[in-house]
Specification:
The protein is an alpha+beta fold and 290 residues long. 42% of the residues lie in helices and 17% in strands. An 8-stranded mixed β-sheet has the order 2-1-3-4-5-6-7-8, with helices on both faces. Helix 1 runs antiparallel to helix 2 and helix 7 crosses helix 8. The mean pLDDT is 90.
């Protein structure tokens, strides 16, 4: 697809606004003329790519499948989480797989800012992938609130004021998790909402650390994992966990979207959307990425 093909497709899309498409076409043409070193592929990824486009693109990058396979193979019997960092650095887009280092076997990513090379890598970091373990009863089949907080900090990397690669909105920021229940990704749709959630969660964590309170544990027991609330626990079914997580996103107004891919091919992505059937009954709709 080139710029003209994009313009034709945009004008044929449902609910399009032709005047906006024409404005963007004119701006894009001027941008590409003034920046001849920028390829159409780079321009598309920066300004036009949808989350579905990004999920397909990352899946096809060399090294992604091998690293995700290592994470997947660690799920059934592993005792320490594994994970890797995703960066916008040609030929170095994925860090080596790291293992453990955190509480309950959680992976700790080695983000550093000691040298110019460290800062370059940090500024170009926009995602991570990790696993949750079948044999750890504290692990669940979807993302945790701590994972969502970490997504916020990845968004901060992408929007650093001092970064030469900064964006106004963390469009690229992404997080993957693979578990015994499936293969999922989360993307940001409202950074301000995500920031508010992150502050709410981190305030509870800090209170527990500084004051010896049990706010996090109490919330998890009475809300997140409670069967008559969100029902997200190690023993909950896949459907229960996905529905509960989508309700959690909605109720806490977090500003993120949930996607599910095939955990064998790491493709075949679908956006998962919550359906409120009334009377406290919920389901979800998997919308395939085209």
């Amino acid at each position: 697809m080139g710029l003209n093909a994009w313009y034709v497709a945009a004008n044929n899309a449902p609910n399009n606004i032709p005047a906006n498409n024409q404005y963007f076409l004119n701006w894009a043409y001027k941008y590409l003329v003034l920046n001849p070193d920028v390829t159409w592929e780079e321009f598309y990824e920066e300004y036009l790519a949808t989350p579905c486009d990004q999920l397909k693109t990352i899946k096809d990058k060399p090294g992604f499948t091998n690293k995700m396979t290592e994470l997947k193979n660690n799920v059934p019997t592993g005792t320490q989480e594994k994970g890797f960092i995703i960066r916008d650095i040609p030929n170095q887009e994925f860090s080596p797989v790291v293992q453990g280092g955190g509480m309950d076997g959680g992976v700790m990513f080695p983000f550093k800012d000691n040298t110019p090379q460290d800062l370059e890598e940090l500024y170009r970091t926009y995602g991570t992938a990790h696993n949750h373990l079948r044999n750890n009863i504290k692990h669940i089949g979807v993302f945790t609130p701590e994972d969502i907080g970490a997504l916020y900090y990845l968004g901060m990397f992408e929007t650093f004021a001092s970064s030469p690669y900064r964006s106004d909105f963390p469009k690229k920021t992404i997080m993957y998790v693979i578990t015994d229940q499936g293969f999922f990704a989360i993307k940001i749709n409202d950074f301000n909402k995500l920031a508010s959630f992150s502050k709410w969660w981190s305030d509870m964590v800090i209170s527990d650390l500084n004051n010896g309170t049990e706010k996090v544990n109490e919330y998890m027991k009475r809300n997140f994992s409670k069967p008559d609330k969100y029902n997200i626990s190690h023993t909950s079914t896949k459907e229960q966990q996905i529905k509960g997580f989508l309700r959690f996103i909605k109720d806490k107004n977090i500003g993120i979207d949930l996607y599910e891919g095939d955990k064998n091919s790491f493709g075949d992505w679908k956006k998962l959307e919550l359906i409120d059937n009334g009377s406290g009954n919920y389901s979800y709709n998997p919308i395939p990425c085209n």
